[in-house]
Amino acid sequence: MDFGLRGRLNVALAIDSEAWPLAAYRLNHPGVQTIQRNLLLDDPGRVLSDAGLKHCDLLHASPPCQAFCQGSAIKLRYDSRKLCLQSPVWYAAQLKPSFVIIENVSALETLWQGPYFLDQLVKGLHGLGYQTDIWNFNAVNYGAFQSRKRAFVVGWRGNRKPLPPMPTHGN
User: How far, in Å, CA of 54 to CA of 163, rounded?
Assistant: First the structure.
């Protein structure tokens, strides 16, 4: 998603629990600060303090989607990665951004336990004063070379409701 925002926003920080995604991110986004932390174990306030980040205008999160994918949702019923879906709420509470965007697989809305975790995410954002909407897109309609159906939970404060982007490719 951040490729679509390139030139429009200054990315201040990227966090992941694994080293290899951060290494790939650094190759594609030189100059962006990266931190390897476990979103379930590390206190968001401390992570942000260590990074020197106190505020941002947009918080974008892509929690692990493997536990919500159609091929693994049943066999990974008790996958702790599902809990990572709540971490954007914890970071939003610290950073108080104007906008929050959480991206995940569209199956999150329908697969076993997905609707529960999605509901908890939305309730958490509402508790912080955000209004929310859910946008569904297929990446192929925006120039990707493969069909990737994604759900975006979009949160905003005040009357500045964002509009979903119009497709740039396809019919």
Answer: 27
Please list the active-site residues.
Answer: 65
* pLDDT tens-digit series, residues 128-157: 999 999 999 999 999 989 888 888 999 999
CB 131 within 8 A of CB 100: no
149 CB-near residues (< 8 Å, 6+ apart): 105, 106, 107, 136, 137, 138, 139
Residue 135 forms beta bridges with which residues?
152
Q: Residue 16 and residue 64: Cα distance in Å, rounded?
A: 10
CA dihedral 58, 143, 15, 40 (to 10 degrees): 90
Both tokens of 132, joined, read 């929310």
Please state the rounded mean pLDDT for residues 9-14.
85
pLDDT for 140 equals 92
Q: How far apart are CA 52 and CA 62, in angstroms?
A: 21
- Check: CB of residue 144 under 8 Å from CB of residue 106: no
